[in-house]
Amino acid sequence: MGYYLTVIMGTDEGRSLTIEDEQVMIGRSPSAQFVMGDESVAWEHAVVAREDGKWTVNNLAAAGTRVRGKKITAPTRLAPQDEIELSPTCRLMLVEQQDATDRPSPGVLIAIAALLVLLIGAGAAYAVYAFSSSAPRPITPTHWRNAYVKLDERLDHWTTQGSMPPRALQLFRNGWRLEQVHDWMGATRNWQELNSLLLTQRDSGITGDDLTMSESASESQKALNVLMGYDRTAQATDFEWATDNSYADALVWFARKRSTITRQMAEETGQTGKKKKKKG
Q1: Cβ atoms 122, 129 nearer than 8 A
Q2: What sections of 15-105 are H helices per DSSP?
């Protein structure tokens, strides 16, 4: 049975490495077996190893490594489909390859092919409908991840230059991290505290006036939609949308929206102590 590592989140997303040795080092170092280009990954970040047919991962980086949402301090067992979080914006997954003996029979393949033809036809019909419909496209997790990565970089810059308190960056990263492990109440608390901070944060170096960041925010989330890649009429690299003012606007809307979403998830999963009642 073969195994491979695949990047499921980050600038290297989509890259994979078939594991041929008993040990694989992951990092930005040229001597690593899985060389990463993501700047959030350490030079020598982690080692995935196999012993007696069992897989483990061991952290080598000061920033740490997480498995199943928990920071590891010693070699930790891995199972297929387990996620390895190298940073808040970079994740890998251990995947088990299918043996030739496990491949479906020709009859099953024919049935699958027929089903695919039907699905493609249905998808094409839906695409025509969606194109002609006025209904908005759904905002996907990828859209949110795109905005998070861009906002995290700008927030880090603001914090370094002293325009924003370090607490803002901490709350922003904690809110996102807690969402990834489905701690919806914990995430909600962080987003709500960040919203409160933005209600009082005044810095003319960012907003260009003496208003707080929340007071300077627009009435629509256009800037956020552009950062997400959801609004296709503009790009985040365009001069108009690459400004600190646009990023400040997007940050306010990001915190507001994530606070609402995580609060709803907390109610639906019972983390608030009471489940949300279903309509009807």
Answers
A1: no
A2: none
| Phi-psi category of residue 25: left, alpha or beta, with phi > 0 → left and psi -120 to 50 → alpha | beta
Tens of pLDDT along 246-273?
999 999 999 999 999 999 988 888 887 6
Q: Tell whether pTM > 0.85.
A: no
**pLDDT tens figures, 118-133:** 777 666 666 655 555 5
Give the residue, 138 or 65, on which the prediction is more confident. Answer: 65
- Assess whether pLDDT exceeds 80 at residue 80: yes
**d(C-alpha 186, C-alpha 212), whole Å:** 25
Mean pLDDT of the chain: 83
Structure tokens at 191: 């987003």
Please answer whether residues 174 and 262 qualify as being in contact, where contact means their C-beta atoms are separated by less than 8 angstroms: no
Q: What are phi and psi of 50, to 5 degrees?
A: -120, 130
User: Could you count the other beta carbons within 10 Å of the beta carbon of residue 172?
Assistant: 26
- Distance in angstroms (rounded) separating the CA atoms of residues 64 and 105: 44
- Helices (DSSP H) in the chain: which residue ranges? 106-132, 141-161, 166-180, 184-200, 204-207, 213-216, 222-228, 244-268
Residues 6+ apart with CB under 8 A from 219: none
Q: What angle do CA 167, 170, 176 make, to 5 degrees?
A: 140
